[in-house]
């Protein structure tokens, strides 16, 4: 049965995803945990598929506008997809991820880190630009391998908590590509990278029967229209002020989950 409260939550999250590239896990998972009281594993499993399907709708708009940096996406995938697949295999082989008591705290920690990442992003970009222009050859030499490593970290975080592909990915890309990643290119690249990552990470939970399908459908009814609207609006305005507000909300949510 459709739950319109989930639809409203999906609409809010979908709009933020389209506008900033952030929110699929960092915003939706805390909402499911704190507002609706969903069990952690069900929240992670359902949110992974919510993020994947919602971002497909948003990615089409960004790809049409030519903002996706496919070279960077492929580098991230080479690290994130194998690590996410490894977690999926562990789940499929019977690892009791559904019973680990640290899952909720793990989500809280990652959400809190994402909030800090959003707030400190401009300072990190300034530092990265200084290194990029001061030691360009060394920076470029390490850029590819660090991107793969960043992808691997994101793969583990997303597979275990559903959080990280958006905001952590954005912060990492800003640091690794300070001159290349314009705001619009960053959002588009981050969204496209997250789609197959969420699908791969969600397979283990899908086969384990942890996805709440009515909840997922309810969320998608709200998110699909609004992610398109947010993606269209992203090319016209800056999302920095929204990121700051989102960071404050995430910080509060992360602390609430931990406490």
TrEMBL record:
Pfam families: TauE
Membrane topology qualifier: Multi-pass membrane protein
TM ranges: 12-38, 76-94, 106-125, 145-175, 187-207, 213-234, 241-258
Keywords tagged on the record: Cell membrane, Membrane, Transmembrane, Transmembrane helix
Signal peptide: none
GO cellular component: plasma membrane
Source species, domain of life: Bacteria
Cell location: Cell membrane; Membrane
Record family assignment: Belongs to the 4-toluene sulfonate uptake permease (TSUP) (TC 2.A.102) family.
Protein name as catalogued: Probable membrane transporter protein
Native source organism of the sequence: Nitrosomonas europaea (strain ATCC 19718 / CIP 103999 / KCTC 2705 / NBRC 14298)
């Amino acid at each position: 049965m459709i739950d319109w409260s989930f639809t409203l939550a999906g609409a809010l999250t979908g709009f933020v995803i389209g506008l900033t590239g952030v929110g699929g896990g960092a915003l939706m998972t805390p909402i499911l945990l704190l507002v609706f009281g969903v069990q952690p594993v069900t929240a992670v499993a359902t949110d992974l598929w919510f993020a994947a399907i919602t971002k497909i709708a948003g990615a089409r708009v960004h790809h049409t506008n030519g903002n996706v940096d496919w070279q960077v996406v492929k580098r991230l995938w080479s690290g994130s997809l194998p690590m996410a697949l490894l977690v999926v295999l562990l789940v499929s082989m019977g690892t009791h991820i559904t019973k680990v008591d640290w899952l909720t705290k793990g989500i809280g920690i990652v959400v809190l880190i994402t909030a800090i990442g959003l707030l400190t992003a401009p300072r990190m970009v300034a530092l990265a630009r200084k290194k990029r222009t001061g030691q360009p050859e060394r920076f470029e030499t390490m850029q590819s391998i660090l991107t793969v490593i960043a992808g691997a970290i994101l793969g583990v975080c997303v597979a275990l908590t559903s959080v990280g592909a958006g905001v952590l990915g954005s912060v990492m890309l800003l640091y690794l590509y300070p001159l290349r990643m314009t705001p619009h290119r960053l959002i588009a690249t981050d969204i496209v990278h997250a789609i197959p990552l969420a699908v791969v990470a969600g397979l283990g939970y899908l086969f384990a029967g942890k996805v709440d399908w009515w909840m997922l459908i309810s969320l998608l009814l709200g998110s699909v229209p609004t992610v398109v609207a947010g993606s269209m609006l992203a090319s016209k305005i800056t999302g920095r002020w929204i990121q700051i507000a989102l960071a404050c909300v995430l910080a509060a949510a992360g602390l609430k989950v931990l406490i």
